[in-house]
Amino acid sequence: MASAALPPLDPLFRRSAKRTRDIFASCPDEGLRDDEKIARIRLSVKIHDEYRDFKELPAALLSQQGTVGPSRPRETRKMITAGPSADNDTSRMIAAIDNTPISQPSTFTSSTKLSQALTLHKTTRTIKPTYHPPWKLVRVISGHLGWVRSVAVEPGNQWFATGAGDRVIKIWDLASGELKLSLTGHISTVRGLAVSPRHPYLFSCGEDKMVRCWDLEANKIIRHYHGHLSGVYALSLHPTLDVLVTAGRDASARVWDMRTKAQIHVLSGHTATVADVKCQESDPQVITGSMDSTVRLWDLAAGKTRVTLTHHKKSVRALAIHPTEYSFASGSAGGNNIKKWKCPEGAFVFNFPGQNAIVNTLAVNAEGVFFSGADNGSLAFWDYNTGTSFQTMEDVPQPGSLEAEAGVFCSTFDMTGTRLITGGADKTIKVSFKSSISAGVALPSPLDLWTRI
User: Taking the model in full, what pTM does it have?
Assistant: First the structure.
């Protein structure tokens, strides 16, 4: 009896191999590739299943679409290459046009064309940075017995105040660096200071949960602002309203009526310590940076968040608002850790590259000099408009200090923008000048700069 004809084994083998390949596709074989027709069908089915509900815009959006013009014929497509510019103003936008047609629209004709296009792409966005003279350390003031955590310059530019881990607020003469006054009252580290431009008041906050108002005519505390549940790390005065904003470890920022001591708003939304807070005249009037790696822009009237910026990867420890430009900067830890933002919507502008450290403090003056100080003692000066670094320095610890005490915790420019005051872990205050200010003056070495008070 003749046996039944067996089916050919080759199709069965291929089908089994394809199934095995789909499961264990670690070593793909050229002979086991999918049929081109099957691959197209599979892709079309997948596109249909996933995007069938989005092939057409809703009627409301469709009505907003303008008319689409005729497509450009493929033969008349042109390659943009680098070429001579007409003048300085239009050099970034105008390039010579090469009339060579493109044979394949998805690829460039040659590596030369690609390099020319990339060169043009870079040059069209290059902005020449403003020249800034270098800065030099000219005075080191010693007098605190703990880390210097806060500094503020008074509006008249005659003196400045510092707060430190020794729980004392010290008032220094800006010109000579001499100690004028010591204010005691806090029972823990003083973390924030601000001098009112419209009142004879100095405001301070600290890790003792207290926010205090000092009358500078009587040199005593006249108001306490109670409400924070933990240490208060930062404060800021509104430039036009009699409003004080404080922030701290209870993951909130609080808005106070300066006169009545009443708490107007609790700006809640952060999930970790709010490390810095800044106020400005126009919206957003309050900006906060937190250890939860976010920056929030607040509506002061409603007491609610307007925008949350989540670009930072690590905790945001410092903020700086430009005195004249409608923008601000934020600093955190890690690479690309300093970012510039545009107000009022908080649009990201660019990164300040290079300082791979934990940034504790930022400061910017009206001339566009942007300063950042880090936990490892690295100091950087940038052109604020372009993000170009024009000077880097290392903090010099006080003689007898450890190398680990080179960290910088606070900084501010004076009212003229020609002096930079910083405080650090070596318990000293350092004053730096632009080189043009001290031109012709023989500057001493850092070890000869110590002024003992």
Answer: 0.69
